C-alpha cells in the first residue's frame, strides 16, 4: 500500500473512533502524494473509523479537482444543477482502481488547496464555539498566543459555495502571512486542520480540540439517575402512539441515557435551548432538534408534532423525555448514529449559549440542506443502505 494512504488510514481511524470528535458518516481526511499530483480522500458516506487499505477512500487527480472551483460556468448554474455537476466532476477526477461506486467526499475540492494532510471533524468542543453568536471572538481570545492566526470561515452552504469561500480565504491568507493557514474554524460546522505530515496534523487537531474543551462545562461522570423499566416503556409507548397518530407508521423507538443526556435534561433552559436547528448534521440525521416532552400524554405530543410539521419542518425523530432520557425513532441501523449526533449537539447547546447565545440555521439555510442530494447520499451510505434516504 502507498505509504501516504497507509498514514491517512492510520490517522483517520484514530480520530474516527471518538464520537465527541465526529458523529455519523461526517468528517473527512485527505493526503496528497509526494509528486503533488494525486490526493487520497475519504469516500462520501464512509465513517472515518471504517477506512482501510482497500475501501473507504478515492484517489483523485488534484489538477482536475482544482479546476472545478476555478470553472466560472459552474458558478453560474442554478443551485441544484451546480451541486450535481460538482458531484459528477469529482467522480470524473477519480484516478484509481476502486470499483464500488463510492464517491470522493463532497469537500474534496477544498482539501486540494490545503497542505499535504488534512483532517476535518465536527468535534463537540469546537461546536460550542462555532455555533455561538460570539464564538469567533471567544476563539480569538482562546488562541491569542498563536504565531499565525486561524482562519474563521463564515457559514456557507455546504458543497461548492463553501469550497469557493475557503479557497478565497486561503489565497488571501497566504498573501498576507506567506504560508498556508493550519487551523480553520467553520461557522456552524466544525474544524479543519492541515499540516505537512500525518502525525503533526493529528497532534495539532488533538491540541486544538483539547484547548477548546478546557473552558467548557461538562457533566460529572456517573450523573445518570436510575429510571424504572416501566417508565421507559410508558414513554416509548407514548412516543410510538403519537408518531403513529401523525404519520400512520410504527417504527423502532430506541431508548438512550448518558451523562450528557441527563445533565442536559436537568438544565432549567433545556426546552428553550431546543427551539431551533443548530447544524446541518442535526437537520440531516435527526430532522431538526429533539422534541422536549415535559409530560407523557400521547395526544398532546401528537399536537406538538403536527405543529412542527405545519411550520414546514420535517418529522422529528428524537425526543427528550424529562427525567427519563432520549428516545429515537427510525430504522434500527441508524438510531445509534442519530443518538451520537443528538448527544453531541446537546453538549454544544449548553456551552454555546454562554458565548452570546445559540446561532440557529435560518429557513433558507435549512431549505438548502434539505434538498442537498449529496448529503442525503452521505446519510444513506453511512446507514449501510444503498438507496437515498430522502
Ligand atoms: Zn463537515
Helical segment count: 17
Largest sheet entry: 7 strands, mixed
Strand content: 5-15%
Tell me the name of the CATH class of the largest domain: Alpha Beta
Order of helices and strands: HEEEHHHHEHHEHEEHHEHHHEHEEHHH
In the predicted model, the low-confidence regions spanning at least 5 consecutive residues are 384-390
Write the layout of secondary structure elements.
Elements: H1 3-16, E1 28-32, E2 38-42, E3 57-61, H2 62-70, H3 72-75, H4 79-92, H5 108-111, E4 117-121, H6 124-130, H7 135-142, E5 151-153, H8 160-177, E6 183-186, E7 190-195, H9 198-214, H10 229-247, E8 252-256, H11 259-266, H12 270-273, H13 280-286, E9 291-293, H14 298-310, E10 318-321, E11 325-330, H15 335-352, H16 363-371, H17 373-382
The structure holds zinc ion.
Keywords:
390 residues; alpha+beta; L-fuculose-1-phosphate Aldolase; 2 domains; 7-stranded mixed β-sheet; 4-stranded mixed β-sheet; 13% strand; globular; binds zinc ion
Structural account:
- Helix content is 47%, strand content 13%.
- Residues 384-390 have low confidence and may be disordered.
- It has a seven-stranded mixed beta sheet, with helices on both faces.
- A hairpin with a 5-residue loop joins strand 1 (28-32) and strand 2 (38-42).
- The protein is an alpha+beta fold and 390 residues long.
- The protein has helices spanning 3-16, 62-70, 72-75, 79-92, 108-111, 124-130, 135-142, 160-177, 198-214, 229-247, 259-266, 270-273, 280-286, 298-310, 335-352, 363-371, 373-382, and strands at residues 28-32, 38-42, 57-61, 117-121, 151-153, 183-186, 190-195, 252-256, 291-293, 318-321, 325-330.
- The chain contains 17 helices and eleven strands.
- The protein has two domains: 3-214, Class II aldolase/adducin N-terminal domain (L-fuculose-1-phosphate Aldolase); 229-382, L-fuculose-1-phosphate Aldolase, CATH 3.40.225.10.
- Helix 6 crosses helix 9 (198-214), helix 6 (124-130) packs across helix 15 and helix 13 packs antiparallel against helix 15 (335-352).
- The two termini are 37 Å apart.
- Zinc ion (ZN) is lined by residues 26-27, 120, 122, 189-190.
- Zinc ion binds at residues 26-27, 120, 122, 189-190.
Amino acid at each position: 500500500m502507498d505509504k501516504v494512504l497507509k498514514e491517512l488510514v492510520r490517522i483517520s481511524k484514530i480520530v474516527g473512533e471518538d464520537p465527541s470528535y465526529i458523529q455519523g458518516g461526517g468528517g473527512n481526511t485527505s493526503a496528497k502524494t509526494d509528486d503533488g499530483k494525486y490526493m487520497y480522500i475519504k469516500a462520501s458516506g464512509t465513517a472515518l473509523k471504517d477506512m482501510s487499505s482497500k475501501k473507504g477512500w478515492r484517489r483523485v487527480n488534484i489538477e482536475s479537482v482544482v479546476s472545478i472551483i476555478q470553472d466560472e460556468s459552474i458558478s453560474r448554474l442554478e443551485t441544484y444543477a451546480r451541486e450535481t455537476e460538482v458531484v459528477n466532476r469529482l467522480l470524473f477526477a477519480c484516478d484509481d482502481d476502486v470499483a464500488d461506486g463510492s464517491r470522493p467526499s463532497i469537500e474534496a475540492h477544498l482539501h486540494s488547496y490545503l497542505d499535504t494532510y488534512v483532517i476535518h471533524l465536527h468535534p463537540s468542543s469546537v461546536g460550542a464555539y462555532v455555533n455561538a453568536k460570539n464564538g469567533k471572538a471567544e476563539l480569538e481570545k482562546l488562541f491569542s498566543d498563536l504565531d499565525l492566526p486561524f482562519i474563521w470561515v463564515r457559514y456557507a452552504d455546504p458543497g461548492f459555495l463553501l469550497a469557493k469561500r475557503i479557497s478565497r480565504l486561503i489565497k488571501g491568507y497566504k498573501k498576507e502571512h506567506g504560508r498556508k493557514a493550519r487551523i480553520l474554524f467553520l461557522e456552524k460546522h466544525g474544524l479543519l486542520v492541515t499540516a505537512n505530515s500525518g502525525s503533526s496534523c493529528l497532534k495539532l487537531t488533538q491540541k486544538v480540540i483539547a484547548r477548546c474543551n478546557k473552558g467548557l462545562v461538562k457533566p460529572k461522570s456517573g450523573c445518570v439517575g436510575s429510571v424504572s423499566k416501566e417508565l421507559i416503556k410508558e414513554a416509548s409507548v407514548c412516543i410510538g402512539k403519537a408518531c403513529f397518530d401523525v404519520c400512520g407508521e410504527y417504527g423502532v423507538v430506541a431508548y438512550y441515557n448518558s451523562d450528557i443526556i441527563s445533565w442536559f435534561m436537568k438544565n432549567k433552559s433545556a426546552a428553550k435551548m431546543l427551539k431551533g436547528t443548530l447544524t446541518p448534521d442535526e437537520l440531516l440525521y435527526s430532522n431538526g432538534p429533539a422534541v422536549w416532552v415535559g409530560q407523557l400524554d400521547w395526544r398532546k405530543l401528537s399536537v406538538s408534532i403536527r405543529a412542527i410539521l405545519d411550520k414546514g419542518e420535517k418529522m422529528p425523530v428524537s425526543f427528550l423525555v424529562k427525567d427519563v432520557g432520549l428516545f429515537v425513532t427510525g430504522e434500527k441501523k441508524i438510531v445509534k448514529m442519530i443518538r451520537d449526533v443528538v448527544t453531541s449537539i446537546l453538549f454544544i447547546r449548553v456551552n454555546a449559549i454562554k458565548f452570546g447565545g445559540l446561532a440557529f440555521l435560518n429557513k433558507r439555510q435549512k431549505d438548502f440542506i434539505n434538498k442537498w442530494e449529496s448529503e442525503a447520499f452521505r446519510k444513506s451510505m453511512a446507514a449501510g443502505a444503498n438507496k437515498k434516504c430522502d
